[in-house]
Design a protein that fits this description.
Elements: H1 20-31, H2 36-39, H3 43-53, H4 58-71, H5 75-79, H6 83-90, H7 97-113, H8 121-125, H9 132-143, H10 152-162, H11 171-184, H12 190-203, H13 223-226, E1 243-254, E2 257-262, E3 273-274, E4 276-279, H14 284-293, E5 297-310, E6 314-326, E7 335-338, H15 339-345, H16 350-356
Parallel strand pairs: 1-6
Antiparallel strand pairs: 1-2, 1-4, 2-3, 2-7, 5-6
Helix pairs in contact: 1-12, 3-4, 3-9, 9-12, 10-12
The structure holds iron/sulfur cluster.
Length: about 350
């Protein structure tokens, strides 16, 4: 492919971008935020923080990161942690598959490298759950390797600086953007360059009309600003609409216990606990029939209201019910858990918290 067909023009078309690295690093040296994973950017800390930061705000991640490394200080501890404890440490961060992948990555690092991750991009990229971006971030920040890490912030910054109208959700745009980052990178400080680009996207080159161009250290290089086109970039193809699902959450209570089950590993919210969760919005008669069909007797039925929870591809419209029963036995994979043990003993997704908290 010729340079001319690149979706992000390189130095041959924009020789002025040779100044970007120095301007950016000078700004970063004076303005970098103090973040706990920056104190000691070990491979473990960088991998953990990068995985936690996917889909999650920095302010949310900080206390989770601190708690996590206090309880599980290295790959060895993470590789042998019980799933319930792991999920409790992750509870509230969402996207729980990330936690399972992290543990699997730690197991691989123990098995293959005795707990010491090698300074090798391809070895990092082969770990479970690690994609191009995370591998690039660990390689450059933890090991100082000159490898690009292209996330949404970096795509936005470089689409604006170069004025690229490419759809940044396309794989080719990410590839061309990575090539440009590698070309512009200060190879003496790859980790700082990676973090400086991300930082610029996070605090200055904000999405939409929130960009703070007047105080941007690279504004003299920015084509989008020169063309008064900042809010329109980057271009993103419209997302597919989320699938809409109606669910009924039955908090079936008997004496001082609540009926729960553990969701299957590997799927949505895998390994977490939930109350009876049924498709559709059940009527009161249908809930009574559900209890009766399992040998129980309905004592009382109270509405817990409606809530909505958004996943990446699905939207759940949930109706909650508190169902007091008698005579119901455990069934299928459901079992009665003492109410007093639920908060600490049974990690549960935030999707259900609004209902569960009404009965604990
Ligand atoms: S000048 Fe504005 S649009 Fe351009 S990189 Fe800086 S903040 Fe982003």
């Amino acid at each position: 492919m010729s340079t001319d067909s690149k979706l992000f023009p390189g130095l041959s078309q924009r020789p002025d971008l040779i100044d970007l690295s120095a301007l950016l690093l000078d700004w970063y040296d004076r303005n970098a935020r103090t973040l706990p994973w920056r104190d000691d950017p070990s491979p473990y800390h960088v991998l953990l923080s990068e995985v936690m930061l996917q889909q999650t705000q920095v302010e949310t991640v900080i206390p989770y990161f601190r708690r996590f490394i206090a309880e599980l200080p290295d790959f060895a501890a993470l590789s042998v942690v019980e799933d319930a404890r792991l999920l409790r440490l992750w509870q509230g961060l969402g996207y729980y598959r990330r936690a399972h992948y992290l543990k699997r990555a730690a197991i691989e690092i123990m098995r293959l490298y005795g707990g010491v991750l090698p300074a090798d991009y391809h070895a990092i990229r082969r770990l479970p759950g690690v994609g191009d971006y995370t591998a690039g971030a660990v390689a450059s920040i933890a090991f100082g390797l000159p490898v690009a890490a292209v996330d949404g912030n970096v795509l936005r910054v470089l689409a604006r600086i170069t004025g690229s109208k490419a759809d940044v959700t396309a794989a080719r745009a990410k590839k061309d953007c990575a090539a440009l980052v590698t070309e512009l990178m200060d190879t003496r400080r790859p980790g700082d360059f990676t973090q400086a680009l991300m930082e610029l996207g996070a605090v200055i080159c904000r999405p939409g009309a929130q960009a703070k161009c007047a105080c941007c250290p690279v504004n003299r290089l920015c084509l989008a600003r020169a063309q008064n086109n900042v809010a329109a970039l980057p271009v993103k193809a419209p997302k597919k609409p989320r699938r809409q699902e109606h669910r009924s959450l039955l908090l079936i209570r008997q004496k001082d216990a609540l009926l729960l089950r553990r969701r299957e590993d590997g799927g949505l919210l895998g390994g977490l606990y939930e109350p009876v969760n049924l498709p559709g919005h059940l009527t009161e008669a249908e809930i009574k029939a559900f209890v009766t069909a399992r040998g129980g007797r309905l004592l009382a039925l109270d509405s817990l209201g409606e809530r909505r929870h958004l996943f990446t591809h699905i939207s759940w419209h949930m109706r909650g019910w508190l169902v007091d029963t008698q005579g119901l036995c455990d069934f299928d994979d459901h079992f009665f858990a003492p109410l007093s043990e639920i908060a600490d003993g049974y990690p549960m997704p935030s999707a259900f918290k609004g209902f569960i908290n009404q009965v604990l």
